[in-house]
Amino acid sequence: TKMPAGQICLPTGACLLLLFGTLSSRVTEVGGTHQSIPPSVVKLWASAFGGEMKSISAKYSGSQLLQKKYKEFERAVRVEEIDGLRLVKRLAQDMEEMFHKKAQAMKRLVEAAEEAHLQHEEDADLQYEYFNAVLINEVNEEGNSVELGGEFILQPNDHFNNLSVNLSLSVVQVPTNMYNKDSAIVNGVYWSEALNKVFVDNFEKDPSLIWQYFGSAKGFFRQYPGIKWKPDEHGVIAFDCRNRKWYIQAATSPKNVVILVDVSGSMKGLRLTIAKQTVSSILDTLGDDDFFNIIAYNEELHYVEPCLNGTLVQADVTNKDHFREHLDKLFAQGIGMLDVGLTEAFNLLSDFNETGRGSECSQAIMLVTDGAVDTYDAIFAKYNWPDRKVRIFPYLIGRESAFADNLKWMACANKGYFTQISTLADVQENVMEYLHVLSRPKVIDREHDTVWTEAYIDSTLDDGSGPVLMTTVAMPVFSTKNETRNRGILLGVVGTDVPVSELLKTIPKYKLGIHGYAFAITNNGYILTHPDLRPLYGDGKKRRKPNYSSVDLSEVEWEDKDDTLRNAMVNRKTGTFSMEVTKSIDKGVKTCAYLHNDYYYTDIEGTPFSLGVALSREGTFNTGLTYCNTGDHPDHRYLSQIEAIKLYLSGHDEPQLKCDKELIQEVLFDAVVTAPLEAYWTSLVLNKSENSDKGVEIAYLGTRTGLSRINLFVVSDELTNQDFLTAEDKEGVFNADHFPLWYKRAAEQVPGTFVYSLPFTGSENKSVVLASTAIQLLDERKSPIAAAVGIQMKLEFFRRNFGQPCAALDGKCSISCDDENINCYLIDNNGFILVAEDYTLTGKFFGEAEGAVMNKLLLMGSFKRSVSPAEHTVSHYFLFRFLVEFNLYSWWYSDLTTKAQRLGRSMQVPCDTEYPAFISERTIKENMGHTDCDGCIKSFVIQQIPSSNLFMVVVDNKCDCSMFEPITMDPIEIMYILYWSKARLKMQKDRRRPDTCHPFHPEENSMECGGALGLAPSLSAILLCILFAVHPR
């Protein structure tokens, strides 16, 4: 029988009218103000389209066949729910063993270095040719090797990102501002040559090690394996190992520091410039376990940051950068009243100690000035003697020495150190002197504390997706010569870098589930590793976000408003915690889901870290991608995972591969169960009557164990989206970080439901649609997800199917999407448009096209708005913490602060950035409503498409609703009241202090303080100084 024009027959035999056909329609108008959209018609449209698309998707994906095959193996499967607490304890133990292995390597270096120094006699005339990292393989005009150069064999090595290295020898780097052949450096380089053998032995014992090094207190840096260093465009290498966090943390104990800066009239010009650079260099030496503030003084006191007066702040990157900005606003005038500054500094340290915050260890006052007219012994006697708990470090700025004796006396009488800084070139070396003083107690105690740094980026290594996040383990090296014991001589610090990815290798991914993840934080609550920590941004992700190393856990697990999880982990507790969370499914916050997460946490012994595991109650069962660890031995590094599994199963894997036996068994099970799908797909390809218009292009499968299968229904050259499921499609394939996006989205839905989406890849290809569904392991409601299957189809094919079904209502359709007064949309559960009459709207957020309707849907509860409160949870722009934007006023001009206080809460300043996301309410399947647009009533109907994540939205478009702003997903800057922002600046979260503290030692020789005592104006001051030298406290 010939079909009537404009109709098609579905598999059920029902004939439907064309929705976007030429059918004319009549629109009923009510009072001339708005038109009626029959919900029953929209429901029939949605039902017909949903049935057709499910039929196509199920047929070409083979979902029903695969579900049947898993059911056949039901009796052979045993499901064990993950014991999260037991899991996190085992993971912490595995990490502890890995960390211990690295620390033992450093201990061997420490022992070798101290023994080599003990056997070495200093020789001021020593001549020794060593391999200088900059000069190796350099030749002069005659073609001869330059001094300290020579031939140094370098070969590319894949373990070191194919950099050319020498695995037999180390090289020595000396800062540009230091003399390569200085006697102290040559002697240090000579005795530290003994470390070469230990470097090599360590690498042989643990092939996962990367850079090993020794940073000398004299300034040189010995690095293994040897590699050539290249200066910048100015011929300078500014790197000084003594400025690095790993060096400072290992060399000194945590400290509270007040920096006093003289801004009297005599400091004008170059002196003030040198003073600012000195303060900035002091800030460089402070780390996350330190606390500080900066006070400028003349005849009055001026806190460099006015809203932080009377307190100390943590010396993280954000705070230090913030204070540096304010240093530029200092200028010199008036008379210097040092007594006022010292009194304030002592009171500040005392008051802050009473709060129980801060380092509660070493204390110091850094005095940056061009002179002192008195010794101010009365102040020291009142606030610091006889215990001398606060060390004084004067920095005399300029070439004049008229007041040097007074400053030297202050240092010697208060266990500090005096230095004079005449030029900008002198700043860094002189600032470093105070570190040697603070390290004395630790050296005399012979406490080789092992320290671990927070995460940082190593630009020299690249894992294929950008520079690698690292942590460093470091230990101090001491002089063990008896004659120098009370001087507490620090020789330097040894360290090695540990990629954060190395930590993640200890985590069996298949135990964490689709939305599960592991994370670790430091004793300060800062993230060491977390899937939402993304330190790079910009094109190609090559630029570092400014404060990536000091992102607090509360900024990514932001639903924990009371910091319950964060504080428990900071305080090294073991326990559990649960909360509802909103998580972005992709890395661009285009899609999100509501999840119920159970958190399990414990500490990692021997480190400052705590480990957490988050398991989602929606599918907390099994995934896996690294079956065998191929990185531990050079013979295995070129093996693919499939090759490694075959070698492991053959039993001929010498040296032995480390493989996850349980995971391999599971992936082999998946391979057997899913094998029939290949034959099924092939039969569809061979059947010429199927897919004649080539609308369906790809079928794909992924299992919980990382097994993938792909079938092409068209030749590869004809694929509309060439990137899908290729190496370039980071979000579409299994890797060590995550499940594919299509897999995660399918797992969110009820099994049997297909998830339709546009592939949000880097190019955001809008010419194809993906349809995916989850396959349950067992035939039970709460069964874990075993796999997901899906298809890629042309968007035009999908659009045609949307445009065909129009269910008959009394023999005809009362309305049509062809009607000029109606707009029809197909949107997903996150509000993104898949189909619209205006093709340019494909992929855009529905609120941008229909702001008035989206606003009403939010009010009616059909959609909910969620926000991510800070930039670090996404992959664009910068990290914003509350100090970054807070530079609107200086310490000198406090008009804005005064105005804010006078106006109460009326003045606002930028603080955080919100990133909105939207998700549909699952319980609301259909809805209708209307919006008053300046007297014109705009009506709409929204209907869920059965067995899918889609909604059909039909909107009348006769009204001008331009008075309603579009609802977008653009980031929103959150404004905070200036008055309350100041309170936030002062707020400090819980942190755990390091386990060890070495502020003083009774055997310490405090008279090594930067120079002999000069004449002081007070006899009592001299007597007090001598008394303290004889009876140190």
From TrEMBL:
SMART domains per record: VWA
Alphabetical keyword list: Calcium, Calcium channel, Calcium transport, Coiled coil, Disulfide bond, Glycoprotein, Ion channel, Ion transport, Membrane, Metal-binding, Signal, Transmembrane, Transmembrane helix, Transport, Voltage-gated channel
Domain VWFA intervals: 256-438
One Pfam family linked to the record: VWA_N
One GO location term (cellular component): voltage-gated calcium channel complex
Coiled coil: 95-123
Matching InterPro entries: Ca_channel_alpha-2/delta, VDCC_a2/dsu, VWA_N, VWF_A, vWFA_dom_sf
Cell compartment(s), UniProt: Membrane
GO molecular function, one term: voltage-gated calcium channel activity
Keyword Zinc set for record: no
Signal peptide bounds: 1-25
Membrane topology qualifier: Single-pass type I membrane protein
Similarity section: Belongs to the calcium channel subunit alpha-2/delta family.
Protein name, UniProt field: Calcium voltage-gated channel auxiliary subunit alpha2delta 3
Organism: Neogobius melanostomus
